[in-house]
Amino acid sequence: MKLNKAIAAAASGCLLLTGCGSNESSTASSSSAPAAEPSGLSMVTLGDSISYGYGLSDPTTERYSALLTGMLEQKDSRKWNDYNYALSGDDSSDLIERLQTGKALRLPSADVIVVEIGANNLLGVLTSYMSETAEANGIDLNTIDSMTDEELDSLQSDMMEQLQDTDAVMAEFGKRIDENLERLTADLETIYSLLREKNSSAEIYFMNVYNPFRGMSDYVIGTEEEIGQAFGDYAQDQIDRCNKIIADFTAAHSDLHFVDIAAPFAATDPVPIIGAVSEQITGSEEVQYVDPHPNADGQKLIADTMLKAMRGDA
Would residue 190 count as lying in a domain? Predict the structure, then answer.
């Protein structure tokens, strides 16, 4: 596998998406009984760091759930309450645990439930593999963004040595992705059952997953002698598999709504993420930090897409 500083930076961004090195938590209270229900309508958001608003200067006002409830108020002049229970690092199994332990306190009274889950089922494969390989060399990837050029060069050299057997690496990636996507398929049904146990009438929206690595064409899955698939394309293939699972799941339940956020992200150039891929990465040795979380524009794009879905325009 061809590994370089930019891929290492991408791995560091994935560590943030999967919650490694982050102690961020939901801003919605989950440890005590909720106060009396306020007037108006309520939206409960469940998900990972994307829904939490990781990396924004003020997640409580800039993340898509806050933007969306504001848009809804402007459209129909009714009060909308934003209850966001997303937590950085959650994958589908973590969300099940959150629902089983009753941490989304406003769920039973919600008028709308938004679920964004599945990204960490995929990115967890990359980060766990990279972390294990780095750990074998005495390196903590949580500190990669503070490494010197010399340390990054050493990391690259050590990990290149570990990853020389491309066939074995890709076989391991494939095995882990297959297992995680199989788990996602089962978990979505459990999530649906738990949501309906707690709330039988809310409108429920499930989002799919966008590709934050579109454009990473200079970095390949393969050897330098036998150039393999571009990293961004490889990520797209796996995300497509994940999104088919989510689409098939929602289609199997007439009371669920599927929200395609992957398409508008794919149509936006550059990808609206905090650390977007640019010529600075793909065209030179200079390294830009790659963070796959939505930036403010990305959060606005999700809110716009959700609003269209709720109004029946998508």
Answer: yes
Model's pTM, two decimal places? Answer: 0.82
Beta bridge partners of 132: none
Mean pLDDT over the full length of the chain: 81
Q: Cα–Cα distance between 274 and 19 in angstroms, integer? A: 16
Q: Are 42 and 83 in contact (CB under 8 A)?
A: yes
- Give yes or no for a contact between 46 and 114, defined as CB atoms under 8 angstroms apart: yes
Alpha carbons 290 and 218: distance in angstroms, whole number? 15
Residue 301 is part of which domain span? 5-28+38-310
Number of structural domains (the chain) is 1
Q: Which amino acid is at 254?
A: S
Give, in order, the Cα–Cα distances in Å from 246 to each of 50, 53, 187, 299.
17, 22, 11, 20
**Would 248 be classed as within a structural domain?**
yes
Which has the closest alpha carbon to 18: 138, 161, 113, 118? 118
Model pLDDT for residues 227-252, shown as the tens digit of each residue: 456 677 888 999 999 999 999 999 99
Contact indicator for 216, 127 with CB cutoff of 8 Å = no
Q: Quick check: is 33 in a domain?
A: no
- pLDDT tens, 203-226? 999 999 999 888 765 544 444 444
